[in-house]
């Protein structure tokens, strides 16, 4: 089995969340979905598991934070182009999310925007020209320890 990432996210409205994640490019995996959870496939190795808040709470003894009030993580998504970054942010906003919760960052070799899903989870779609990024970043100098 390949290394995979399963992001388990608490949600308040499962149907609305499924529509949102489908709008940003995920496909629902019916095999691992039911009335309290939905497995949304982002890629062959990344899945978003949307869990109703009460069900999510059965997996931890810690209090479940409200992502509209607190931020526990930023979920970065690589995109193939600047246009793809803009497209996913537009799709997120059209599907009930909130676009550009932070000012877009354009560093020439890297372009990042943000959006929130309907529950307030923050995503950062980003495009980077790796060759230009390497040229722009200072090179480490060798040395002896």
From TrEMBL:
SUPFAM superfamilies: Glyoxalase/Bleomycin resistance protein/Dihydroxybiphenyl dioxygenase
Domain VOC span(s) in chain numbering: 3-128
Top-level taxonomic group: Bacteria
PANTHER family in the cross-refs: BLR2408 PROTEIN, BLR2520 PROTEIN
Designated name of the protein: VOC family protein
Species for this entry: Microbaculum marinum
